[in-house]
Predict the 3D structure of the following.
Amino acid sequence: MEYMNFGNNQTKLLFDQEKGYLEKIEYNNRSVDIRSKFWCVHTVNGELTIADMKEFWVQSYGNMRKLFWKSDAATVTVTLRTEFEKIYFGINVDLYGENAVNEVEFPIVEGMKFSKENYMLTTWQNGCIIKNPVENLLSKGLETPFWMGRGKYEYTNDYPAGLSFQYASFYSPEEYGYYFATEDAEAYIKSYTYRYNEKTNGLDFVVTNYPANMGKTSNYCMPYEFVLQMFEGDWQVATQIYRKWAIEQKWCKRRLTEKHIPENVKKTDLWRVNHTNDMLGVRTQEYFDTSLFLRDTMDCNLALHWYGWNLNPEHDWDTPDYFNDECRAMGWPETLKEWNKKFDKEGIVKIPYTNGRLWEKKTKSFEELNIHAAAVKDQTGEILNEPWTAAQNLTTICPSCAVFQNKMVDMCREFIMDEGFDGAYLDQIGSFNARLCFDENHPHPRGGGFWWNDSYHTMLRDIKTLLGKERFITTESCCETYIDVFDLFLVLDINFQQSGFNDMVGAGITESVPLFGMIYGDYALGYGSICRFDKPAEQFEYYLMKNTLWGFIPSIEAGTAEELAAGKEHLAATKRAVDFFKAHKDVLLYGRPYEVLDVDCETCSIEWQLKREDGKPFVDTFPAVYAVMWKAADDQDYLFAYNFSNRPQKITVADKEHTIEGKSFYSHTM
């Protein structure tokens, strides 16, 4: 068969000359059979694919190629261009007659597979890789939990915020890899999907694009480009490719060394987060006493991420009103203000949990302010609820609506400034996916567009103006597009040994990787933890030391009085992390990790309690030394490492042998 080909010195795309199907990808003279339908237009009258088109032709313009498909129903144009190692894709759809565009799947790359061990990189939260994803996950037909994406026989998540970054990769370290990205500076709403391909027992990769005025417009011109680059190596190579583009975007106007960072952020050596124990936050005296104990034991500046501050032992009840009638009647607002003064006197920083996305229907303000009108609506006009706790009736609010933006500002005035907190935490903005909204009374295009991101930026700038330079604002997770408006990011799901995909399949198929730090470590700050005192000490240590080496401000989960009294090993590990952070604070705050090293040493093992069919724990074996290369703000390179074993370990880096004592951090200037 004769093919129309387009590409660069490394990579060529081969198309069927008769119909325009993407048939093959050639990389360094290795041919990969694809046979992909390449695009699919979902219209109000049904789907359009290449199979529905009557004509196909091609035009060439230097390093650009235009592919045209035409029928009585539509003209679809795909533009391809090359620049260095990258191939760029764009699409334009014109429909005829009484028809309109809903969604455009483009590009579709079907049937990818490898003969050797392979991995799928997804940029949910801080990022993770999934080993042999077809065999271990996608072909099993497991239902993805809503909080980490969606799909059965596929994995789909959305940008911005469901996905923190707009790139992905599928690779075999022994063969080659695919780097996929959308170079979208405006943060349009879009979805990434890895889909099981039963015919090839391989993978499909699909980007779903959502036009502004979905279901109403007869034209869609993709307002950003998709990028394909083939490479050799692993997820770190793909991440280095992405960083080069990412740090040139508008959310990276200034490095951390050029930004104003509030003093309470810079001085903090340890964060205490009671995310999994709201009741501890309700027991204020115990919370205060144990905070003093931690501060003194660690000899550190302590900051509190406080759940239960409004005497409610569960997330999001009464949001965004927070102080219900009972709470106000007992004088809690006044009492809380006094407690905050006590924390201030002891030099302890504190921020309260609030939500920046939801409104509980049971609150007085929901009816008083007619919040139903501001809720996100689907195409049938129904408002969208979120399933965190069914009894709460938590409604997703459209961030473009003035009543919501004003309420968020008022909430920060009442609960942050008036109560004497040191900053604002606005949950979910940087973690949970943007929603398409079809309410035509709202001040945004119907369906897709970049209005979600822009609306939050408007609101967050107003909040920052209200709070001033020294009160800081933070959100959940680490979506890149909000780097310019948040002072730091709470990343709770940093490791996945006991959660996420590992728990779905009952085995350790997933490894967390530090995408946030490697891409944006010198532009943004993070903290967060699932390092819990009620878990075995070796699990606590594993999380905490890796998190610290990735550049997150050391963070621990809760710790009741009883747990702290019994947790001598946990406390000793925390002290090691805090001391290391304090000793290297300038590098860890203002620099970035740039390479996770594969070192040769002894191994350690940990048992993880996962949902295994046989009821037995999963035992994970890993190198005793975790080593990361760092680049400081002055471009000085550092080797940072931690030895999880009790025995000294020797590793070789850059032809030099390094000895790391047992249960110890290590640093070396390179």
